[in-house]
Amino acid sequence: MLYRTVISSFLAAAAFAFSPSTPAQASGIEGEIRGVDGRPLQNAQVRIERKDKAGAPVTMQTNAKGSYASSALPAGTYKISVIENGKVKSNVTVKTKASTARVDFNLKPSAGANVKHYVLVSSAGTHLPPRWVEADANGTPIARGTNMDVASAALAQDMLRRQTNNSGR
Predict the structure, then answer these.
(1) How much is the pTM?
(2) Which of 11, 52, 61, 104 could form a disulfide with 77 if both were Cys (CB 3.0 to 4.6 A apart)?
């Protein structure tokens, strides 16, 4: 009886020790590109480069609707560039998790001082829907009443700290 218990314990331990580890969670990046005339930009080149680890960039073309999509990317930090006629027209750096990030580009010129950046904040692990919040040029959410969960003082302090550190004040 003792022999069977020892063997079963050994087999159970071996099963846990040699079981494959959890695979890296895959994420994706998708979006739409609008040209200077406000219409979908066809055949623009989109380059997705991994910034936190070395790796070859992923390059694709937009379709007739100006859309692009890349799936099965490992979660991480990526620089997404829009290239038209061999020139980088716009780029942004995003950090992905285990879900698909949506990054849209609008290449229409604006008044400059009135440009606002927004990032989509997913509510991974909750039942809340994702929401858009205003961000600085680096993609860090700006601490404002409309961006903050007022029930969480820690979140407000964290956002204010990040905003202060990014602007150099």
Answers:
(1) 0.53
(2) 52
